[in-house]
Design goal:
CATH class: Alpha Beta
Helix content: 25-40%
Number of domains: 1
Oligomer: single chain
Number of strands: 10
Distance between the termini: 9 Å
CATH superfamily: PPM-type phosphatase domain
C-alpha cells in the first residue's frame, strides 16, 4: 500500500520558489520531486517548476539509479536552457522513485530526503552545502547546520553547470513499514529528526504526520521565514 501527502507554504516571503510534484502509475509506482529555487539568483520559481515538470513528465515508471541520475541531469539542462545573462536561475532537487519493492532517490543541493524504517530513522541525505562541508571537516556538528552562517551557501544545484553531479541511493523495501519525507530547508531547519520520528509514531497517515510537524514549525519560525515545503510517503511492505 502507498499513501502520499504534500504541502507547500510561501511563509513570510512575497513569492513561493518551492515546487512539489509527483507522478503515480499503476497505483504503486511513484516519482516524487521537491525542488527549491535559489532566491539569490532570480527566477527560482521558474527553475523549480521546470525541473519538477521535466522529471515527472519524462519518468519511465522505473526505480533505477542510473535512469534517475540521467533524468535529473536532463532537468538540469532544462534549467540551464531557461537562463539568461540577467537571470542565472538555479534550483535544488530531491527526487524519490518507488517501483517493484524498491526505493531509489537522487538529490542535488540542500533539500533533504529522510527514510524511516519501522518508525526509526534509517537514512538521510547529506546537504551539498558549505555548512555540510563543515561537518565533514569536523568543524561543526550536524545539528549546527540548521542555523550556521553558511547554511544557505549551496554548492551543488540544477542550473549550476553542464556537468552536474547527482548523488543517488536506494533501498529494497521488505516487510514492515516505510516512511519517506522530502523537505526544503525552510522546513527541516525548524523540525528536528527526533521530532520527525516522534510525530511519525503518533500519526494516522502521511497527511497527519506533515500536519504535526508543521505545528512545530509554526511555533518557531520568524515572521520573514523562508518558503517551506514537504512531502510524505508511507509504504506498507508485505
Amino acid at each position: 500500500m502507498l499513501d502520499i501527502a504534500t504541502y507547500t507554504d510561501t511563509g513570510g516571503r512575497t513569492r513561493n520558489e518551492d515546487t512539489v510534484r509527483y507522478a503515480l502509475r499503476d497505483g504503486d509506482r511513484l516519482c516524487l520531486i521537491l525542488a527549491d529555487g535559489l532566491g539569490g539568483h532570480g527566477g527560482g520559481e521558474l527553475a523549480s517548476s521546470a525541473a519538477a515538470e521535466c522529471v515527472c513528465t519524462l519518468w519511465d515508471g522505473r526505480a533505477d539509479a542510473e535512469g534517475l541520475r540521467s533524468l535529473v541531469r536532463e532537468a538540469n539542462r532544462r534549467v540551464l536552457a531557461l537562463q539568461t545573462p540577467q537571470c542565472a536561475m538555479k534550483t535544488t532537487a530531491a527526487v524519490l522513485t518507488l517501483a517493484g519493492g524498491r526505493a531509489v532517490w537522487a538529490h542535488a543541493g540542500d533539500s533533504r530526503l529522510y527514510y524511516f524504517q519501522d518508525g526509526r530513522l534509517a537514512f538521510q541525505t547529506r546537504d551539498h552545502s558549505a555548512a555540510q562541508l563543515g561537518v565533514l571537516l569536523g568543524d561543526i556538528t550536524p545539528d549546527q547546520i540548521r542555523f550556521h552562517q553558511d547554511r544557505s551557501r549551496v554548492l551543488r544545484a540544477l542550473g549550476q553547470d553542464d556537468e552536474l553531479t547527482v548523488e543517488t541511493g536506494q533501498r529494497e523495501l521488505g516487510p514492515g513499514s516505510h516512511a519517506f519525507l522530502l523537505c526544503s530547508d525552510g522546513f527541516w531547519e525548524y523540525v528536528l529528526e527526533q521530532e520527525m520520528a516522534l510525530d511519525l509514531a503518533k500519526a494516522a497517515g502521511p497527511g497527519d504526520w506533515l500536519e504535526r510537524m508543521r505545528r512545530r514549525l509554526k511555533e518557531r519560525i520568524p515572521a520573514d521565514n523562508d518558503n517551506n515545503t514537504a512531502a510524505a510517503v508511507w509504504v506498507d511492505g508485505e
